[in-house]
Amino acid sequence: MAKGHRSQIKRSRNENNKDTRPSAKLSYARISVQKACYVLDVIRGKDVQSALGILTYNPRYASSVLKKLLESAIANAENNNGMNIENLYIAECYANKGPTMKRIQPRAQGRAYRIEKRTSHITIVLDER
């Protein structure tokens, strides 16, 4: 058995398994997971320069949100990890479901239809080649 309190054991174990790759996360983005994934699938595995070009000229709304997130991840890699921008590529990018805001649309004869405004948590992880 390991020595120490359970929280100390967990803390030491988590320090050893910590992911050191630069990343950026956007929580509660006002875009559905499905719409974000259309753009994420296009840039996954690409180097950051070509991914920025794709996001700049992609007409979808998600691309403008993801472009800012990718630029943040690049800045994190450069400033915090001292990595070279030319060698970076998108190792992981995914969108998880966030809370859904429920709204009401009034309809005829006193009825009310529900509108669901979906949110997502988007993560981009970079790595060096």
TrEMBL record:
Name of the protein this chain belongs to: Large ribosomal subunit protein uL22
An annotated Gene Ontology molecular function: rRNA binding
PROSITE patterns recorded: RIBOSOMAL_L22 (PS00464)
Keyword RNA-binding attributed: yes
NCBIfam families linked to this entry: rplV_bact
PANTHER family: CHLOROPLAST 50S RIBOSOMAL PROTEIN L22-RELATED, LARGE RIBOSOMAL SUBUNIT PROTEIN UL22M
CDD domains: Ribosomal_L22
Quaternary structure and interacting proteins, as annotated: Part of the 50S ribosomal subunit.
Region listing for Disordered, in residue ranges: 1-23
Signal peptide, first to last residue: none
Source organism of this protein record: Blautia hydrogenotrophica (strain DSM 10507 / JCM 14656 / S5a33)
Family classification: Belongs to the universal ribosomal protein uL22 family.
